[in-house]
């Protein structure tokens, strides 16, 4: 009959064994882990921290120290809003607002106009990385999303349908822009980079509605950009385009210049024409 051992294991033996296993696992991962992945992770953390430093200096006065937003007079309504919260807006919103010079805003106004860019591209990328780290939000579009030159004629036609359905009420059928109530306006899309058109649809800046990836897919957005860029590159074979501002402006031009010119010419003929002599 085998005699049972009466020796007991030390209570710290299991803990020591677990610590040894964790140490060996970490050493093994450090050995086989790609150096690029480790460097990329460290770079990402460094970029976020650099973005936070820039944010505290240049953005916190309006958007709050932690990007939670600031309201005046202790109110949360639209009139008391001083700087909206940026938590959850994503890197796409930062890219659009800062790369077009709309932010930082020079002075309070119904709408932030496009102006000279105040930050370098690296600084914008760092602030975008910091804001993106606060909460999930729309990321910046990829090169494939912006490759509107590869869209065929069917895609351009489809993009035109989407644009006329969702965008012409404010931006005009050719993207020339237009006035809106309360001192606001839909800016022209002439000369706007594809990335900013995409990000505007994705984030809905100012009074523009948000067209998420569920509402308009990346392919839909690329087709819309292709349509806008295509019509901007087309010539005006019909003569004077009138700025592409639509039938109302064309009608006013026809009445004022056309009918007005004919009326003036008729008056001139009546005043300088040959009069019949009385006998």
From TrEMBL:
Source taxon at top rank: Bacteria
Record flagged with keyword Heme: yes
Location in or out of the cell: Cell membrane
Documented EC number(s): 7.1.1.8
GO cellular component: a single term: plasma membrane
Binding site for heme c 2: 167, 170-171
Domain named Cytochrome c: residues: 46-135, 154-232
Principal location listed in the UniProt entry: membrane
Membrane topology: Multi-pass membrane protein
Signal peptide start and end residues: 1-30
InterPro entries assigned: bc1_cytC-su, Cyt_c-like_dom, Cyt_c-like_dom_sf, Cytochrome_c_Oxidase_Subunit, TAT_signal
Annotated GO MF terms: heme binding; iron ion binding; quinol-cytochrome-c reductase activity
Subunit structure: The cytochrome bc1 complex is composed of a cytochrome b (QcrB), the Rieske iron-sulfur protein (QcrA) and a diheme cytochrome c (QcrC) subunit.
The name this protein goes by in its record: Cytochrome bc1 complex cytochrome c subunit
Lineage: Bacteria, Bacillati, Actinomycetota, Actinomycetes, Propionibacteriales
């Amino acid at each position: 009959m085998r005699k049972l051992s009466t020796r007991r294991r030390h209570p710290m033996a299991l803990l020591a064994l677990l610590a040894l296993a964790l140490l060996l696992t970490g050493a093994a991962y450090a050995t086989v882990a790609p150096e690029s992945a480790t460097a990329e992770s460290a770079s990402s953390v460094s970029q976020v921290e650099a973005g936070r430093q820039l944010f505290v200096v240049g953005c916190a006065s309006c958007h709050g120290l932690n990007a939670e937003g600031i309201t005046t007079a202790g109110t949360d309504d639209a009139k008391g809003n001083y700087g909206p919260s940026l938590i959850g807006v994503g890197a796409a919103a930062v890219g659009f607002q800062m790369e077009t010079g709309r932010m930082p805003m020079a002075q309070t106004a119904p709408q932030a106009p496009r102006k000279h860019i105040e930050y370098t591209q690296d600084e914008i990328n760092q602030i975008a990385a910091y804001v993106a780290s606060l909460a999930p939000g729309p990321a910046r579009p990829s090169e494939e999303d912006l490759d509107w030159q590869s869209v065929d004629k069917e895609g351009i036609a489809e993009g035109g349908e989407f644009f006329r359905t969702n965008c012409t009420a404010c931006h005009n059928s050719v993207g020339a822009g237009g006035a809106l109530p309360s001192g606001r306006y839909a800016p022209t899309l002439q000369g706007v980079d594809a990335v900013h058109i995409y990000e505007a649809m994705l984030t809905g800046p100012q009074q523009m509605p948000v067209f998420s990836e569920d509402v308009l897919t990346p392919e839909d957005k690329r087709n819309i950009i292709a349509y806008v860029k295509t019509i901007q590159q087309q010539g005006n074979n019909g003569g004077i385009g009138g700025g592409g501002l639509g039938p109302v402006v064309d009608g006013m031009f026809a009445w004022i210049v056309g009918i007005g010119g004919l009326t003036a010419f008729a008056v001139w003929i009546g005043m300088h024409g040959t009069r019949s002599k009385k006998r």
